[in-house]
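Notes from the 1:1 (GR / supervisor)

We went over the backlog. Supervisor wanted to see one worked example end to end before approving the batch request, so GR pasted a single chain during the call. The sequence is below; no edits were made to it. Supervisor asked that the structure be written out right there so they could see what the output format looks like.
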Amino acid sequence: MLFPLFVVVTLLEIYVLVSVGDTIGGLPTVLLVVITALIGSSLLKHQGWSTMAKAQRSMAEGKTPAFEMMEGVVILISGVMLLTPGFITDAIGLLGLIPLSRRYFINNILKKNTSKIFNQKNTVFTYKMNQPPSAEKKREKKGDAIEGEFWED
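Structure output shown during the call:
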């Protein structure tokens, strides 16, 4: 599924680049692609640091930064799209860097995949709170020594 998508997007990018090149000329087309990449990379840097700060704030408050991690993934994918030359991938990459559209993408991904994540039937999680008395005695006899090395600079 990924390979046909890659081929179709590449052919569409070539078509759009040639069409724009015919309309405004070759050099302005190349300059436009470079300018969108520069604008996108500065936006990528800003949004990446902003998301990192939000994740650190969440961890400082004792919360899991799950949403911020998803934002980081979308920002990473958007950065790859911006580095790919072309107008279609630049437009998709810029949409991923705008906070409102990024939240929209993440919410849709979560809505579509929530049932797949939480309804897996082969997943088993067990936690034994009470160990048998023989295991506790063995642990007491063994001790809680941790081996390691220490040195000073």
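Supervisor's comment: Residues 9-134 form one domain.
Batch request approved.
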